[in-house]
Queue: 4 jobs
Job 1
Amino acid sequence: MKVVAATSIEAFGRDEWNRLFAGDIEDWAYYRAIERAGLPGFELLYFGLRENGELRAAVPAFITDYRLDTTLTGSLRRVTDAIARFSPRLLTQRLLCFGSPIGEICHLGFAPDCDRQEKARLLDLLVGEVESFARQRRIAMLATKDASAAQDELWSTVAAVHGLRRQPSLPTAVLDIAFDSLDGYLATLSHATRKDLRRKLKASTALRVEWRTNVDDIIDDVMRLYRATLARAALTFEELTPDFFRLVLRELGSRAGCATYWLGDRLVAFNLVLHDGTKLIDKFLGMDYEVARRYNLYYITWLQNVRYCIEHDLRSYQAGQGLHREKLRLGSRLSPNWLWYRHLNHLVDGVFAVFERLFRLDRNDPELASLQPAEKRPRRAPIAAWCGFLACAALSQVAFKYAAEQTGAFDWSVHWFGVAVGSFWLWVSVASHVGEFLLWMTILSRSNLSSAFATSAVLFIAVLLASRLLFAEPLGWHKLIGCAVILVGILMLGSDEPSVESRTDSQPSAS
C-alpha cells in the first residue's frame, strides 16, 4: 500500500478521484476550483492510498492556524478575545484537518468494492500516515471537520484506535422535496409559518430574480454582499476570494449557478448553488442588509431555491449549516456532523479533554443537543477523580500548615518572603492546588454543579482527620457531630442528580 500526499488535486486523475466519491457534487472539479481560487490562511492537501497503482481511498485536507475559541459565544468569547489581544498566539494552534474549509462535509472516499471492514482498515492507515505527516511538520493538532452521520460508525471505530475525541459540529439542514408546487410546499408547514411566508412573498414583488452562470461583470457587488454577510456571521472560519465564485461557476459548468436578486439596477442579494439531477446545495448567500428585512431577502432566496428544485425535479434541497432553528421552522430536517480531534501532545490533549465541554456548540443549544446520542458512559464523575481531588485538596492544606510552621508568623520583610519561597512544603501545596484544579474541572464536566459542590464538603472531614493524625490537634464531640451533619447533607444534596436515562429520554427526537 502506497501513501500519496499531494499539494494539488491534479496529482490524482479526475476519473479515478470521482470514482471514489460517486454521487458527490463537490467533486474533483470543485476542489480544483477551490485550489486555484486560493484561500488566505489555508494550505490545501490531498491524501490517498494506492494498491498496485489503483487508488483505493482518498480524502482532502488542509493546514491552518486554528483559534481554539472559534466555537465560543457570549461572555466566554469576550474573555478569550481579550486574551487574544494581549497574546495573539496563546489561543492559536497549528492544525492539520481532514476535509475542506469550504466543503459541506468531510468527503472521505473509497473504491466501490470496499466493504465496511476494508474501509475501516484503509481509514486507519490514512489517519496513521497523516498523524506522522503532522509530527514531521511540527503541527500541534489533528482533526476532522464535519464528519457526516453517514460515516459516523466508521470514524468512531478508527478514532478509538488513534485517541480522537468528538465534538458536535453544526448540522446540515435538508429539505426533502416531496411536493410538486410551491403551494404544496407551503401546505406542509404550520399555519403560522405558511401565513408568514405568504405575507413575505407579497411584500417582495419589487424584486427581480436572474439566474446566472457567470458573475464576472458583477463580481465587485457579489463580494460586497458576501463580506457584509460574513461580518454578521456568528461563527466564521474561512474568507472566500473573488476567484472562488468565478472558478466554481466555470469549473462545474451546468452543475453550478448563481441566483441574483435585483431591486431595479441594484444587486441586493446573490446565492451560489450547486446541483445535479437529484439535489441542490445552497453554498453561499450574500445580502444587502440595508434592505434585507424590508424585502425579506433570506426567505425569498429560500423560496426561490425550493421553486428551482420543483421545476427541475430535484428531490432534495441541502440548505447547509447555520440558522438551524429557522430551517427547522421551514420544514427541514437536521443531519448531525462531527468534529473529531486530538492534540498530538498527550499532556495538552489531557487538558483539552477536561475543558472541551465549554467549547461544545450544543452547550446552550437544545436543538443541537437533541441531535446527539445518549452518553454511553456514566454521567457521574469516576471515583478515581473524586479520590484524587480529595487527596490533592487535603495535601495542599497539610503542606500549607507545614510551610507555615517553617516560616513563622507573616510579616512584609524580604527575609520572610525568602524563607517562604524556599520552603519545600509551599511548592508541594502549589502543585497540589494545580492537581486539585484539574481534577475538579474533570468532576464538573461529568456532574451537576449542585451535586458536585455538595459532595466536595467531604474535604472538611478529610482535613479534620489529617489535623488529628499529623498535628495532634484535638477532635472533640462537636467536630464529630459536625462531620456527621456534613455526611447527611452530602447524601441529601448529592443524590438528586438525574440518571442518564431520565435526562436523555426527555429530549425531543432528532427527527
Job 2
Amino acid sequence: MNPSRQIADKIGSVRDVSTTMNEERVISAIHDRGANMKILAVIASWGTKNDTYLARLIQEYRSMSFDVDVVVLSNLPKPVGPGAEVVVVDLKGKNPTSLPFAHKRIFAERLNAYDLFIYSEDDTLITESNIQAYLKACAVLEGNEIPGFFRFERGTDGQINYPDVHGPFHWDCQSVRRRKDHVFASFTNEHAACYVLTRAQLERAIASGGFLVEPHSGKHDVICTAATDPYTQCGFEKVIGISPLEDFLVHHLPNTYIGSIFGVSESELGSQIECLVQIAQNGQTPTPLFPVESKLMYRRFSKNCYETSQREIIDVIPQGTRTLLSVGCGSGATEASLVGQGLRVVAVPADPVFASGARAKGVEIIEGDVATVRKKLEGKQFDCLLLLDVLHLIQDPGAVMSAFAPLLRVGGTVIVRVPMALRFATAYRAIRGDQRFRELGSYESTGIHFISRRIVRRWFEKAGLRIKTVATEMPPTVASVPRALQRVWNPIRAMRTEVKMVFTATKL
C-alpha cells in the first residue's frame, strides 16, 4: 500500500470522510484514532538561550495522548531529557541561520514511519488542542488548503499581542471561505514559526520540488522561510480558522514583542476578525482599493499598515484645514489624530478589513474600489488630500491621482509620501541578491514603480496639480548629516534603507 493510501486510512481521507459523515461523526472518528497516531515533532534550537522554552515544548509533547517522537536540531550537543533525540547539524562554512532547514531532510527520511509531522522553533508552543483543531479543519478543507497557526504573546499585565501582524501583512479579504460551519481566511504573513503536515501533505510537498531545497530567503528571511516553504512554494495555501481563532493560536513563549512595533492588540485583531466573519455571512467578496505589499524580497517598499500617528505628516497639513480625505489608509492612527484635532476626516481604507478599526477611532469610512469610491464621493470637496505610501504600489498612479484630484477644492493641498525607490539603489540591492535583474523595472514582477521627483511630478501634472515642496524623511542615523550633503547622501542611504520623500502640491 502506498504512503498516501496508508495516511488516508489512518487519519482519514478528508474528502471521503467529510462527504459521508456529519461533522460530529468526523470529530469523533479523529478522536478515536488519536491514541494510535504517530507524530514526529522536530524543533530547531540554536545555542542554549531558549533551553527553558525548549524544555517546556518537550514536556508538552510528552504529555500528549498521541505517540510523539521529538527530535531537537542543534548546532551543539546538549541534554534535552528523556524521550527526545538531539541531532547536531554541521554548519561549518554555512550560514548559521540555515539550521532550521535541516528538519526537511529528517521529515523526508522518516516519511513512512509517522502520520503527522510538526516543525517549530524552540519557543513556539503547540498544544494537543491545536493538533486536534488541525485535524478537524483538515476534515472540511480542500486538498490544497492547509490549516495554519497564528502566534500570540501574553504580557505580565495579561495583555495579548499578535506579533505576526505588522508592516504590510494583513488578512486577504478575498480569501474568506466557509467550510460547513467554519470560516477560514488567509493572512499574508505565512510565518508562525511552526507548521503541521499530514503524511499525504508532506508527500505532496516533497513531490512539488519546492520542499527539499537548499536554504534560501525570499519573501521572508532564511529562518522564517524554513517554516513557510510548504505554503509559498509547494502548491498549498495556508488558511487560518477564524471561527473560533482560539483553536489556532500558538504561544510565542518569550513574549518578546509586547510593546514593540511588531503586533497588534486583542481588540484591534478582534475588529479585523469581525469584519472577516461579516464577509463570510454576506457571501460577497469585497475588492481592495490598493495593494499594500510589494513583491520584492522581504517585501521592501511596502506600506506599513499599522504605523503610529505620523507627526511629521500632521505638521505639513496647512493651518485652516477643516476637511481631509485620506486615500489608502491602514489602521487609521494618523487619521484618528486629525479627528482629535477637530478635522472632519474621511478615509478610504486600502483594504476593507481595516475599515472597522479606523471607524472605531472616529474616522468616516468609504469603502470600495476606485470607481465605487469616486461615485460615493461625487460632489464632495476637501481642503486636503492624503496619499501615504501607496502611489508606488498602484499599477497606474497617474490615473488614481486624476480620479481623486477633482475632490480637492481649488487651492487645496495634496500630500503624497513615497519611498525613494531609485533605479540605481534597487539595482544595488539586486546585486546583493535581493531581486533578479531581469525583474527590475517590471511592475508585474516587483509590484512597485521606480520613484524620482521627475516621475512623481509627471503624476501630479497629469492630475492638474502643481508641486510646491519636496521634503525628505531621513532615518535618525543620518539626521546629523549637514544639509549641504543631504542631497548627495540620501540617494546613497536609499541603497541600504528606506528613505522617503514627502511631496506637497496644490490644485491649479
Job 3
Amino acid sequence: MNKTETVTIYPAKNITGGVSLPGDKSISHRYAMLAGIAEGTTKLKNFSSAADCASTLGCMEALGCAVRRTGGEVEIDGAAGKLRAPAAVLDCGNSGSTMRMLSGMVAAQEFASEMTGDESLRKRPMKRIMDPLRQMGAEIEAKGEGDRPPLRIAGRRLKGMTYKMPLASAQVKSCVLFAGLFAEGETTVEETVATRDHTEQALRAFGVTVKREKGRATVAGGQRLKAIEAYVPGDISSATFFLCAAGIFAGSNVVFDSVLLNPTRAALLDVMTQMGMKLNFLKVEEQFGELIGTVQAQASGLKGATIKGGLTAALIDELPALAAIAPYTREGIEIRDAKELRVKESDRIAAVAENLRRMGATVEEFEDGLRVPGGQKLHGAEIETYGDHRIAMAFSVAALRAEGETKIVGSEAVAVSYPEFFETLERMVER
C-alpha cells in the first residue's frame, strides 16, 4: 500500500439493514491451500475478497497450481501433493496466515523456497512455526532479525511427532498439521486452549482422516486429498464491526445472511448476547462441518464485559472492535491475557489506547490488555490506523456515535480483509 487514503466518518442516528459478508478469510485460506495439493479441480463460491486471501492464491499459483478467479468464484487445479518450485520469492503480502500455514506444506517439498511479505509482515514473529517444523526435520531459517521474515525453507523429508503448543494459535496448529500430511507416520497437535477448528474441518472436507480427542488433533502422512465444490460462509470476523455498530444504537436492526456460525468462532455472539444484544437465528445449516446461518441482531444498549483466558484467545481478532465501542457501554470492557495483540499487523493494544485517547476517552493500558470505562462521550479525531485493517474498521464504528467528524487516516488498510467495508457501512447508516 503506497498511497495513504483518508475516509471521513460522520455521526449517525442508527444502523439498519442486511449485510452480505465476504467469504470467511480463515476458511478461504485453508480451502485454497488444500485445493492446491488435492487431486482434481476445486470450485469455491463466495471466496474472500480480502487482499490476504489473494496473497494465498498468488502463492499457490507460483507453486504450480492453475488458479482461475471470476468475481467471488475461484477454481484451483490441484497438484496432487507435489507442488512445483517457484520461479521467484513467494510474496505473502500482509498475510501472516499465508506465511505461517503454507510453511508447513513447502517444508516437505523437494525444492527450496523463500517467503516474504510487506513491511508489516516482515516485523511479525515466525519462531512459533519454525520450532515445530525443525522438530519434524525441516530446514528453515529466518533472514530477518529476531526470527522474522523473509523465511528460507529447504524442502526435506519430515517425520511425524506430537507437538504440545506453548501458546494458543490456530495458525501454528494448521502449519504443523499441514506438514503432517507429508510426514512419515502420525502428527499430533496438543492444545491446552482450544483454537478455531477450521483446519480440521477443511482437512475432512478434502477427504483426510483426522482423529480428534480432547485437546488433540492427529493426521497420518501420505493421505490423498480430493477436490471439492463448496460455498465459503460469510466472515464472522467482518460481521463483528456491524454487530458492534448495531450494539451502540438503541433500535438498531441488522441481518447477516449466510454467516459462519462455527462454535470455535462464535464466542463473539455469546459475548454480545451477555452484554444485552438480542440475536435471532433464522436459518442454520451445515456444510463440510461448518455451520452457516442467517442472524438478526437488535440492540437497546450494551452492559459491559470482562474478557480473559480462553475467551481472549477465541476473540483475538474481534478485540479491537469491542475495545473501540467500550466507552459507549454502561459498565466498560476489560481485556486481559491478550499479549498476542502486541504482534499483530500493528501493536493493537497501543493503537486502540492511543486512538481512544485521541477521541477523548479514558483508557488504562496493560502489557496484556486494556480497561476502558463505560459511560464516556467521544469526539471526532484523526485516527492513525498504522496500516492495520482492524484498527481502521474498529474506529470507523466508534466514530458513528462521536460528536463531530472523524478522519480515518490510512483507510486503504481495510482492503486486507474487507475491501467493501466503507461502502457497506455507508449504505446501512441512518443520519
Job 4
Amino acid sequence: MHILLHACCAPCASHCIEVLRQLGHDVHLFYSNSNIAPHAEYLKRLDALKRLATLTDTPFLVDESAHDRWLAEAARGFEQEKERGARCERCFRFSLLRTHEAMLAHGFEGFTTSLSVSPHKHTPTIFAVGQAIDAQRFLAVNFKKDNGYAHSIELSKRFGLYRQNYCGCEFSNRTQDAHP
C-alpha cells in the first residue's frame, strides 16, 4: 500500500519508516507541523527530516506551515492545557486532517502518523482522531510496540539526527513536563 506518513520529527519517523516497510508498504514522509514554534525550531526539524529522507531513500512532501491558523483552530482557549490534554487532541486533528488532504491530493492509498511512537503521546486518542477522519484509510499502527521508541533513539544516534527536547508548540515548550 502507498502510505503517507505524517512525520512529527525525524527521530520518531526513523523507526516508523522501518516498520511500515516491514509491513510491505511504500512510504512517503509528510512534514506537516504547523504547531512547531519558534520558526527556527520548525526549520531545524525539517532539515533533520530531509537528512533522514536522504539516508533512508524515502520520498517526502512538505506542507506549508500555518502556525497562525493552528493557533486559531487548535490552541486558542487551550493554551493552559498540559501535555496529553485537550489541546493535544486538537493538534492531532489539525495535523492529521492536513495529512488526509495531502493523501487524497497526491493519490496515496492510506495515511498514518509517527506520533504513536512516543511514550508521551496517548495512542488511543491519536487512533480515534485518525479513524474519525477516515476509518478506511487511516492505518492505526502503534509504533511504540516492541520498544519502538528506544529503537527510534538508537536510529537517531546512528544517523546523527537532531533530537528536540519538547513536543513542538510554544505551550509544550514552557511546561515542566514537556517531552520530545
